[in-house]
TrEMBL record:
Positions of transmembrane segments: none
Family: Belongs to the GHMP kinase family. Mevalonate kinase subfamily.
Domain GHMP kinase C-terminal span(s) in chain numbering: 225-301
Keywords noted in UniProt: ATP-binding, Cytoplasm, Kinase, Lipid biosynthesis, Lipid metabolism, Magnesium, Nucleotide-binding, Transferase
Organism whose genome encodes this protein: Candidatus Brevifilum fermentans
GO biological process assignments: isopentenyl diphosphate biosynthetic process, mevalonate pathway
Biological classification of the source: Bacteria, Bacillati, Chloroflexota, Anaerolineae, Anaerolineales
A GO MF label: ATP binding
An example Gene Ontology CC term for this record: cytosol
Enzyme class of the recorded protein, top EC level: transferase
Enzyme Commission designation: 2.7.1.36
Name of this chain's protein: mevalonate kinase
Gene3D superfamilies linked to this entry: 3.30.230.10, GHMP kinase, C-terminal domain
The GHMP kinase N-terminal domain, residue ranges: 81-156
Length: 317
């Protein structure tokens, strides 16, 4: 049996992070330039029902039997077994790798789970729909994030720009005009689980202050939906600034994020904000044209450890 290979992209949240955990809408897009891959290599001889996992990016080289059952890879495999009604896998090696920055708000955990679910279910001859894959990956996301909204697994499994509200039908955005985005990494590792917990604590202590902030962020995402479809970059830029100020009130920005945001705006970006959990990780800037060179250089000069550009193209639904 030949090796089977599957791939899943990174993602970036454009609007609505954190508020999305409280049932407000958010917008996210896949980022195809970075991705996770999983290769299933059938064991040719010897050991019976042995599953070996190699993930060189995180220095993991281990038998499944030796992994804690709460480990995300163990949970991913268990989700697959449940979904296809099997109690064990045949002998195989899983080779997992990723170019998505880890703990940086680009969906690396969801992408790894999704590439692995895809590779295993294809290998077993039981491919699943994007919706089914997203649901399985959501269970894995709970380990990483505690109380995830589900936006990461959804956008990565469907590989489409989405207007996402937890528990509501999800809209795939039909883009009419391209927009150009620059994503810059602060180099500061961040834990989404921790930032979500910090925001949860704030809103539990003072719901009268924080619930209106979530609602305002939700309104921004709602307005941004149409602006993104039609490529109204001036409005998008303004909404990014408004969203960033509300995220600052949620205490999830950081001095380095603020510095990169201000560098991007000075270099001509029409808008900039943090993206994802915050307190580190990535920020995004909206470029006025396809030529993003000056914004990229300014971000690197201001201390970004990595810059990725992505275009949201017309017809991407
Ligand atoms: O981009 P990430 O993986 O850091 O996700 C963060 C998005 C949050 O809204 C903060 C949490 C969530 O589950 O939606």
């Amino acid at each position: 049996m030949p090796a089977i290979y599957a791939k899943a992209p990174g993602k970036i949240i454009l609007f609505g992070e954190h508020a999305v955990v409280y049932a407000q809408p958010a917008i996210a897009i896949p980022v195809n330039k970075v991705y996770a891959t999983t290769r299933v290599i059938p064991e040719v001889a010897g050991r019976k029902n042995q599953v070996h996992i190699k993930a060189p990016d995180i220095q993991l080289d281990v038998d499944l039997a030796d992994l804690d059952e709460e480990h995300p890879f163990a949970v991913t495999i268990q989700q697959v077994l449940n979904a296809v009604n099997l109690d064990h896998l045949p002998s195989l090696t899983l080779l997992i790798s990723s170019t998505i920055p880890i703990a940086a708000g680009m969906g690396s955990s969801a992408a790894i789970a999704i590439a692995t679910i895809r590779a295993l279910t294809d290998f077993l001859g039981k491919p699943l729909t994007a919706g089914e894959i997203s649901s399985l990956a959501f269970e894995v996301e709970k380990i990483h994030h505690g109380t995830p909204s589900g936006i990461d697994n959804y956008v990565i499994a469907h590989q489409k720009p989405v207007f996402f509200t937890h528990g509501k039908p999800i809209e795939h955005l039909e883009i009419q005009q391209p927009t150009h985005w620059v994503i810059a990494d602060t180099g500061e590792k961040t834990s989404t689980k921790d930032t979500v917990a910090a925001v949860r604590k704030l809103q539990a202590l003072d719901p009268e202050t924080y619930h209106p902030i979530f609602e305002q962020i939700g309104e921004i995402a709602f307005t941004a939906r149409q602006a993104l479809i039609t490529g109204n970059i001036d409005l998008l830029g303004q909404l990014m600034g408004d969203n960033q100020r509300l995220l600052e009130q949620l205490t999830v920005s950081s001095p380095k994020l603020d510095k990169l945001i201000s560098a991007a705006l000075t270099a001509g970006a029409v808008g900039a904000k943090l993206s994802g959990g915050g307190r580190g990780g990535n920020m995004i800037a909206l470029a006025p044209t396809q030529n993003t060179q000056s914004i990229e250089s300014a971000l690197l000069e201001a201390g970004a450890t990595r810059v990725i550009t992505t275009t949201l193209n017309k017809g991407e639904t």
